[in-house]
Amino acid sequence: MYPGTLLYRFLALFALVCSIHCIVWYEPEQVHIAIGESSDQMIIVWNTVNDTKESIVMYGPGGKLDQTASGSRTKFVDGGKEKRVQFVHKVVLKGLSPETEYSYTVGSSLGMSDKFAFKTWPLGEKWSPRIAMYGDLGNENAQSLPRLQVEAEQGMYDAILHVGDFAYDMMEDNARVGDNFMRQIEPLASRMPYMTCPGNHEEAYNFSNYRNRFWMPRDGNKQMFYSFTMGPVRFLSLATELWFFPEYGLTPILKQYRWIEETLQEANKPENRAKHPWIITFGHRPMYCNNDDDDDCTHHESLVRIGIPIVHLLGWEKLFMKYGVDLAVWAHEHSYERMWPVYDREVMNGSIKEPYKNPKAPVHIVTGSAGCREIHDKFKSNPHEWSAFRSLDYGYTRMHVINATHLYLEQVSDDKKGQIIDKMTLIKESHGPYQYPLRDVTPKGDPVQKLWKTWGKYIDAASRNRSPPKNVFNWKIQ
């Protein structure tokens, strides 16, 4: 055999191996989208293992790919032992036509993805959004995911709200669990805006997996709270977890509180509330629940509800009343629960016959039963009077904002093969602050998992087996 023949075979083998691995390492994956700063924008996000030096989206209406947009990429180093590296790409499509289906493909000159598609929202406020909502979805026991994927393909939804807790956990196995989860949700998340908030299972390494993988409007994933509008609704995505990891300091808690109040003040200007009469919040840990697990929402002095115990600083419930929040959506408990309208643990129904018509306080629901490896959180045998309906079935919540006055909710049971097990219509003939004295939240001395003193001096650090931080005001964005 001639030396030249050996060299030829070696080069041929090298080319074959390279061709396979180049496709793998530069191949775009984990594609997902979010609404941009306005409804004519769409944020397109994907990952590659290696740096491609460019981030490109080819897109167009009617199945065409005749437009191109470029964006940026960020090097993401997982905090695990392997310090695995990948690159997160972000491109914002702007000037999109309303109510139009766009095809798109993502990647670079080293390789493009398969073709995906999304449909833009109608123009303006006078349309009726349909949304699927759930939290606590893992890549093990993701029982609701197949049904959601089928319904998404049928065009049943305009957006998804994932109310915290992803993958269980995204950081595990040096973030490979997070990679697998993002691949699992790609059929959903590449088709419509997949809007998120952080949960407790995202806390590792300063929430780095959450803050690097997802991109929300105005970079809301970095500070972990943001707002967006959708038809007649203004949504506020909130970071309840800032309350439960005070080693990151009081500064982000105070910053978020001020942002919530400023955002609600702006939303309540007459011209803004006329356009977006519904104000809906979503955050991971509830203010109210009836589960038998000693979580924060089972306590009389819930941190999310009343803020710093004893002094009651920076709690959210009074803000929700003061500025007329209509609906608060939560998860964390692996169950579904619908509350009567409630404030300070007191039922505030509109009337005896029509409790959800012109209620005197916000309505709360908990939808954390999408399915994960931690199974269910059982309920107490003696629920509080503000609990209207409870279920341990795996499932998710559908919301249809019919118009400026009517909002419909229903709970889908995956255990019962898609049967509707609960439904409610919220009627608000006018929107705005609730006409009820904003009394101080009634104090009660019961144990709270995380104890604070004024201005965030963290005590009871032993409860989490961590030493108190040297600087409770530190907040480092990685």
From TrEMBL:
Signal peptide per UniProt: 1-22
Positions of the Purple acid phosphatase C-terminal domain: 361-422
Similarity field: Belongs to the metallophosphoesterase superfamily. Purple acid phosphatase family.
An example molecular function term from Gene Ontology annotations: metal ion binding
Catalytic class of the enzyme: hydrolase
Database matches in SUPFAM superfamilies: Metallo-dependent phosphatases, Purple acid phosphatase, N-terminal domain
E.C. number: 3.1.3.2
Purple acid phosphatase N-terminal domain boundaries: 28-120
CDD domains: MPP_PAPs
Domain Calcineurin-like phosphoesterase residues, every copy: 130-336
Domain of life, per lineage: Eukaryota
Lineage of the species this protein comes from: Eukaryota, Metazoa, Spiralia, Lophotrochozoa, Mollusca
Catalysed reaction, written as an equation: a phosphate monoester + H2O = an alcohol + phosphate
Organism in which the protein naturally occurs: Elysia crispata (lettuce slug)
Keyword tags: Glycoprotein, Hydrolase, Signal
Protein name as it appears in the record: Purple acid phosphatase
